[in-house]
Write a structure and sequence with these properties.
The protein is α+β, with helices and mostly antiparallel strands. The chain has a domain at 194-321. Helices cover 13% and strands 30% of the residues. It contains 6 helices and 16 strands. The radius of gyration is 22 Å and the shape is globular.
């Protein structure tokens, strides 16, 4: 594209506002990086190991941006996002959310989902879209719910180095040169947040479906059964105990309008297997003898009471934990 004869910009190369694979310019807000990632993951690479390398030019363009509304960094493909500015009046933009941290921005960046279950890409982490051989989408996730989302200000994020050191995001920023040239960063991260325990009840749907039903405990003794689609084609076994990490909420007092990353243990770490939202769940009450009011069937929604979380919703049993995620 830098040839003197300008032939790199022939009409066949620049069509429909595109320069090659990407739109001209980098956009007006930092959420434009999400659209670029979605577009990029639809493409087929000659070498699948180039999945991150192929996006580095776009990431660098956003990182070097002089405008705060477009500036964004990333870690192994996950963008560190800031809150979506809300337009108050024409030409007027609201003030940034107070207390927003890179860790909170990373949590929002984790709210991607796969178009369909696929195989893992070796050598890349499960928590990043680079670890899956499939197009991705942030559709229905936090990106579309800004600026209403809330993230607990106490969440923590740390990165593991191959030599055993553990660095926070702030440590990485302070020692950026050392972190990129001397320290060997691994693909394992440590997330500290509210978590829930999930148990796989069964597959939901026809044979071969990758949709699952998982149950979690409620403080009133009941159970909440939520449905999610697995990222992987590897079958999840009945009774498998998983962990869910709360990534965001529409209100910190309402766990039913939250985005939950579902994890399964593999060796000494956890791996991401899906994304779920309790608002698509079914609530089961029990009598004094512990008998369920409404019996399970193949069609979960028919036999269980669908609970309206706006009317005295039962409290989800959760705990504050640190999870090693790879």
């Amino acid at each position: 594209m830098h040839r003197k004869d300008k032939q790199g910009f022939k009409k066949s190369f620049c069509v429909d506002g595109l320069v090659g694979a990407f739109p001209k310019g980098i956009g007006r807000t930092n959420t434009e990086i999400i659209r670029r990632i979605e577009e990029y993951t639809k493409r087929i690479l000659t070498n699948k190991d180039d999945i991150l390398k192929g996006m580095l030019g776009i990431f660098n363009a956003f990182e070097r941006s002089r405008r705060s509304v477009t500036k964004v960094e990333h870690y192994l493909g996950i963008p560190i996002l800031s809150p979506m500015p809300q337009a108050l009046n024409r030409g007027e933009i609201s003030k940034p959310v107070q207390g927003w941290t890179p860790t909170m921005g990373f949590f929002v960046g984790l709210c991607w989902n796969l178009k369909s279950p696929v195989e893992r890409r070796p050598g890349f982490p499960s928590w990043s879209w680079t670890g899956w051989q499939s197009p991705i989408s942030w559709g229905g996730s936090s990106v579309y719910r800004w600026p209403s989302i809330e993230i607990d200000h106490n969440v923590k994020l740390a990165f593991e180095c191959t030599d055993g050191q553990i660095l926070s995001w702030e440590d990485v920023q302070k020692n950026k040169i050392e972190a990129t040239t001397q320290l060997q960063m691994s693909s394992i991260i440590r997330i500290t947040s509210w978590t829930i325990k999930l148990r796989i009840v069964r597959r939901n749907g026809r044979r071969g479906s990758y949709r699952y039903v998982a149950g979690l405990k409620l403080e009133d003794g009941g159970r909440l059964y939520l449905r999610f689609t697995s990222n992987s084609k590897t079958r999840l076994q009945h009774g498998l105990v998983c962990v869910g990490i709360f990534l965001d909420h529409l209100s910190m007092e309402d766990d039913y309008n939250a985005t939950i990353m579902v994890l399964a243990r593999k060796g000494g770490i956890y791996e991401r297997i899906g994304l779920a939202r309790p608002q698509t769940s079914t609530y089961v009450r029990y009598d004094r003898n512990g008998k369920a009011i409404g019996l399970p069937s193949h069609n979960l929604a028919e036999d269980y009471e669908t609970y309206d979380p706006k009317i005295n919703p039962p409290t989800i049993t959760k705990s504050w934990k640190e999870i090693r995620l790879g």
